[in-house]
Predict the structure.
Amino acid sequence: MKDYQPVRKLEVLRCLSDGSQVLVGTLVQNATAVFFQYHPEYLAHFSSLSPFKLPFDAKLHQAPAEPHQQLHGLFADSLPDGWGMLLMDRVFRQRGWLPQQISAMDRLAYIGDRGMGALSYRPVMDAVTDAAEDWIAIEALGKEAQAVFEGDTQTVLAALAQAGGSGGARPKAQIYLDVSAGNSVASPLASTQARAGLQPWLVKFTSRHLPLGHEESLCEAAYLTLAKNAGLEVPEWQLISANADANRWLAVRRFDCSERGRYHMHSLCGLVDAPFRQPSVDYVDLIKITQTLCKSVAAGQQLFARALFNLVGLNQDDHSKNWAFLMDDKGAWQLSPCFDLTFSPNANNEHMTAFNGYGKAPPLAAMQQLAKAANFSSWEDAKKMIEKMLDAFSDWQSVANDLGVQKQTRDLIGKQLSEQQQRCRSLYGLK
């Protein structure tokens, strides 16, 4: 077992869509702060990776102390939260290291090239985990993830540590499938390591401790279906039936990956230094940010549609890390497909992202201001989009039934969705 050696310097690389890598710059840390400097060649040939908070020049830039653990938001996006941090800390403890002594720079070195998005870091932390098996049963990964999440084990299987470094609080794993050999998401085997020819997917496992228990994946799949029916862009997904308990897990194809490489991905949280564990942004600002970054009025109207979907569908966990943007090799930005869409009301019925200052039940004037920010030609046009979202959720019962959601769960969610539909119709003058 090696003694803990803090990381003081990291090179930051970017994987392009063709799989090639370019040096972005250097991160350094002293006793008080973290600093970043772009490499001159990157400045000469590429575009800014974080245009709102990190100047695109050759100067040395100090990271803010908050809200990203003394990292710039650009690099904090490479780190997981909840689930990934839990796994990381378990691995550190297995090595005899105290997690509270591990810096954010150390964690980037641990992640290496296994984070979401196109950025990677070197040198990679040496021998943090034993070499994971090349191929492993998805069922074994799911059972191990469930045991860790539910506190039934203190150790972490090397393969799960290799695969589990993505964001979010829910247990999950990044897997790679050899589709050229005839495998599909339904295949019992997957690799936890990226290789040429393998297709990247993210599998979300279930647990009895999740709000919707082992039906969490089914309900999220239903919401993805409703979102697609409503005209929203969603990633490719499938349900996996992989264990003896007949639980089904949601597998989502990673949209930050091209056929051979990666696209740069930046969360709203990292882009504008907005803390994600508390309400910190408003949909009015998010619409304006989207239009500015994507240089598109249509993108702002897409954002308005997603805001409506969350409002009608009681997806109140719409925090700043659940919004993301993708940038191509030439520097053009677009909204990422929707993700983490599900029924997620909270005790106060308050959204994490406000509707022109209102956390819940935004009145007519607030929604009209959102529509104005999204550059609708008239309120009547915006009302048509509201109707479209309301109509989409009218199919909840049939969609959820087709996916296998139990009647008790369907009825419980359906009752709240129906009440929310009536509330919205009353607020916005719809029949």
Observations:
- The chain has 14 helices and 16 strands.
- The chain has three domains: 9-122, 136-253, 278-427.
- The CA atoms of residues 350 and 359 lie 5 Å apart.
